[in-house]
Amino acid sequence: TPLGQDILNNFLFKACGCKADWIPGNVVHDSIKNIREQVGDGKVICALSGGVDSAVTAGLLHQAIGDQLTCIFVNNGLLRLEEAERGQATFKRGLGLNLTYVDATDRFLDKLEGVIDPEIKRKVIGEEFIRVFEDAATGLGHTDFLAQGTLYPDVIESVSVKGPSHVIKSHHNVRSPLIAARRDAGRLIEPLARLYKDEVRQLGRVLRVSPDVVNRHPFPGPGLGVRILGEVTREKCEILREADAIYIEELKNR
Q1: For an engineered disulfide with 18, which of 4, 12, 22, 132 has Cβ 3.0 to 4.6 Å away?
Q2: 66: left (phi over 0), alpha (psi -120 to 50) or beta
Q3: What distance in Å separates the CA atoms of residue 244 and residue 29, rounded to the nearest whole number?
């Protein structure tokens, strides 16, 4: 509504007595401190998707522990146009990360053959991502921790929260048994798990993550897989990649 912000301000700051003291710089400082305490001299691997969340997570970890971090960027064949190339440039040259790149396009498209239901697609993509990631991590030798860019909405969408609520959609980085085992063992690092997307973008600006990444248009975790109606094929992926690129360019030109 025209006065929506005023209504929210009155409720929060006058009726409830809340204080507007959330500062992204403080969150960055506290996150870096907590990561250093948790990791010690251990080695960390981080899953990169090319999106805002994983980029900010990697930026936090890099500032906290430097070369103790290695990032794995998996190309699942369902990314945006030229995203694999831009992602490598951003993470390796822009942020100076230790980066391992894996092109697993064939593996993902083979697994998706004949799959039509969007929720099944999510699960197939999520499970295969974990397998590809674990294979890549094995090649790096011993690692102590896994880091990922889980947000608060990822958590509350994936589980029934405080009562008879429905699961909205599954997130492999929340519900995967492999992830759950690491979480239970205290070997999972999720510095953004209590934050929303707009807050993560603010952290990214403090960390000086590339504006192209921080301000990018939202893109689903399973990528083009859930934007394509029906079966996922190489031809459909190429068509949708081109269409998405045109759409994003028009948004930028507005």
Answers
A1: 12
A2: left
A3: 36
pTM above 0.90, yes or no: no
Q: What's the N-to-C CA distance of the chain in angstroms? A: 23
pLDDT on residue 183: 66
Contact status, residue 206 vs residue 25, Cβ threshold 8 Å = yes
The model's pLDDT over 166-212, given as tens digits with 9 standing for 90+, comes to 555 555 454 455 666 666 667 899 999 999 999 999 999 999 988 88
Helices marked H in the chain — which ranges? 4-9, 24-39, 52-65, 83-88, 105-112, 118-138, 152-158, 172-175, 177-184, 197-206, 211-214, 234-253
Round to whole Å and give the CA distance between 74 and 56.
Answer: 17
Q: How many CA atoms lie within 13 A of 115 on its CB side?
A: 18
CA distances from 237 to 6, 138, 232, 243 (A): 44, 30, 7, 10
pLDDT less than 70: residues of the chain: 157-185
Whole-number Å distance between alpha carbons of 226 and 219: 10
Token look-up 């998707």 returns: 49
Contact 79, 223 (CB under 8 A): yes
